[in-house]
Amino acid sequence: MGHGELRGVVALDGPSGTGKSSAARRLAATLGARYLDTGAMYRAVTLAVLRAGVDPTDAERVAEVARTARLEQGDDPERSTTAVDGVDVGAEIRGPEVTLAVSPVSAVPEVRELLVARQREIIAAALERAGGIVVEGRDIGTVVVPDAGLKVYLTADAQARAQRRTRQDHASGRASTVDATLADVRRRDTYDSTRAVSPLRPAEDAVELDTTALDLAGVLAALVDLVERRGLRVVAVGG
């Protein structure tokens, strides 16, 4: 696989419903880069915890599941895949049971330590193969890749985020309402921003981008502009 136009790492952080995943995938595809959804990795561990019948708040047993589960995360922006013990779980990890349990599982220090190490391995391999990668999550710019060439923290009004999440659920065949999703968004915001390990917050040198009034095309345009301003886009000259 040849190198794309992106050189280095673009770190996209922010809470749920800001358009982070869609924008990250589209940006990676536009620039011929790889893509890493770190949230899917935490959801995959959460699914393994639930399948094992473990209480998500039992840190010791959750850590044991995280150590033993075989997790595989793809980096293709056109088809991001997540597997646990060799079985694709891409649809299952988006279900309501996992969504309710992922915050306490993600707060377990050993889970974060294990997954951050794995994420750094994936990033290093992607840089070697493609030259650039777009990584999205909640602690990319602060913990996973603190030296990323571009760090962007996406924000949006909670109501707008709930509406987006609800539309995504309906499009995927999952039943939800805006009110229920709004409550979940606020719950996760509080949990993720107050946890002791790697709390959700913008890196000191991150560019904050409010996506409330932007559609996907608008967010993508803003991100491409930031990439170009940082000199991270290398366009091959033909001839």
From TrEMBL:
Q: Where in the cell is it found?
A: Cytoplasm
> What chemistry does it catalyse, as a reaction equation?
dCMP + ATP = dCDP + ADP; CMP + ATP = CDP + ADP
GO biological process, any = nucleobase-containing small molecule interconversion
Q: What does the UniProt keyword field contain?
A: ATP-binding, Cytoplasm, Kinase, Nucleotide-binding, Transferase
| Binding locations of ATP | 14-22
User: Which InterPro entries does this UniProt record tie to the protein?
Assistant: Cytidylate_kin (IPR003136), Cytidylate_kinase_dom (IPR011994), P-loop_NTPase (IPR027417)
Superkingdom of source: Bacteria
Q: What is its main location?
A: cytoplasm
* Gene3D superfamilies referenced in this protein's UniProt entry, alphabetically: P-loop containing nucleotide triphosphate hydrolases
Q: Which GO terms describe its molecular function?
A: ATP binding; CMP kinase activity; dCMP kinase activity
Stretches assigned to the Cytidylate kinase domain: 10-228
- As recorded in UniProt, its EC number(s) are 2.7.4.25
User: Which Pfam families does this chain map to?
Assistant: Cytidylate_kin
Q: Which GO CC annotations does the UniProt entry carry?
A: cytosol
Q: Which HAMAP family does the record match to this protein?
A: Cytidyl_kinase_type1 (MF_00238)
Q: Which family does it belong to?
A: Belongs to the cytidylate kinase family. Type 1 subfamily.
Q: Which NCBIfam families match?
A: cmk (TIGR00017)
Q: What is this protein called?
A: Cytidylate kinase
Species classification: Bacteria, Bacillati, Actinomycetota, Actinomycetes, Pseudonocardiales
